[in-house]
Structure formats: structure tokens, C-alpha cells
Amino acid sequence: MVSLSGFLVLFMALDCCFAHAGNGEKQILNQISRSLLENGLARTPPMGWNSWNHFGCNIDEKIVRKTADALISTGFKNLGYEYVNIDDCWAEHKRNKDGRLVPKASTFPSGIKALADYVHSKGLKLGIYSDAGFRTCSGQQPGSLGYEKIDADTFAEWGVDYLKYDNCNTDRSRPELRYPKMRDALLGTGVQYFIHYVNGEEIILLPGEPKLEIAGGQHKTLTTVGLA
Q1: Predicted structure pTM score
Q2: 8 Å CB contact between 126 and 115
């Protein structure tokens, strides 16, 4: 059985941070909340599992399937944990001749569509990862910069419900210029997505600054939490 301790630590850590936030931090959180996309999703905090904190790049479809099974068998789904999210390193190093991202044959031989179907059969939702740059943060797979529409269409065809969109290896333009391109591409598919933006190190929100006009479902401004 896959251990769920990784994401429990993550949510407890975030709860601690928000509970003890000072006035400055609260202003930042309020600023972020005002820029969220109103599409009916994330009215309460989204809960689930993300592969990065424990597995990093050592992820495969067997782990994802076992995790979906574990969310059911442990009763976590009944508590609201519904997302099973694949992070970085799921795709081949290069796009195919049509410009599409390709799941790694060595780790995701069944493809993402089959994996999404399996996760959906459990009453859960599947998330995937990309980056608003030329390559992802690991450097191991192509980013979506310049390929927003084709990637959004691909994710929709696969049945993906959630996109974590990172901010590494960019053209150095500000995130609010790049993120809306993916947001609009996803909206153009007609599929309802939860979008999780990761600001990385290129943008720091400070009290009093103009609000971040990038309109997604969630923004990550903290360092990724891992297990000791």
C-alpha cells in the first residue's frame, strides 16, 4: 500500500503557516484570493495527493494506481481527498512529430488517458504537471511555453482534471504574462479544470503591490514541503 503520510504532513504544515500568519502574510493571502478564477472550483481547499513530495522523478503509473486505491481503502476519499496528481518527469524528453507531449514509455506505458480512466473509475480526479517555460523544473521534459493550446487540447483529450503549472526555465517574462495563455487555452477546451499556479522564485508578492492578475484556481507561494 502507498503511504499517505507525505500529503498529510503537507496539509498540516500549510494549516500551521496560515493559522500563524501575521498581518503582512494575511494581506498577501487576501491579494491572492482576489485574483482567483471564479469557475465554481476550489470553493473549499482542494485535497489529495501529489507525487513530488515523496517520489520526485521516480514516479510511474503503478504508483499512481496504488495511490488511487489507497485513497479509497483508507477512507480518505470520504473525507474529501479527491485529487491524484502526477508531478514532474512523466513525459518523454522530446515532443512527438505533431508537437505533442508524450508519456514516458518506460514509466507510463498505458498512457495518461488509461490512467485517468482508472482514477475516474474510483470516483477520483487526475492531475498532471507542466511548466510555463521551455522545460520543466527537473529539466527532463518540455515545458508548455509556446505550446499552450496543443497541450491544453492534449490534457482535455486525456481526461485530466487538474493542472499544476510551474515557473521554471522561462523567457524571463513575468508570470502574469505567461499564465493567462494556458488558462485561456484550457478554458477553450470546454473542459472544467482546476489550475494550480506555482510562482517559483521569479515573483514575490508584497503587501501593497497590485494584485496578481493571472486568474487561476490556486497559487503556491511557499517552498514545497517534503519528508525528513
Answers
A1: 0.74
A2: yes
Q: Which grid coordinates are listed for 86?
A: 502526477
pLDDT in tens, 181-193: 998 898 899 887 7
Task: Point out which residues pair with 9 in neighbouring strands.
Answer: none
Q: Is 138 part of any domain?
A: yes
Residue span of the structural domain in which 159 resides: 5-37+47-220
Q: Has residue 140 been placed in a domain?
A: yes
For 166-225, write each residue's pLDDT tens digit: 999 999 998 888 988 998 898 899 887 777 777 643 333 333 333 334 434 444 434 443
Q: Is residue 84 part of a domain?
A: yes
Q: What is the CATH number of the domain that holds 188?
A: 3.20.20.70
Q: In 3D, which of 3, 41, 21 has the Cα closest to residue 222?
A: 21
Q: Which helix (H) or strand (E) holds 219?
A: strand 218-220
Q: Which of 228, 217, 222, 171 shows the shortest CA–CA distance to 200?
A: 222
Number of domains composing the chain: 1
Residue whose C-alpha cell is 479509497: 72
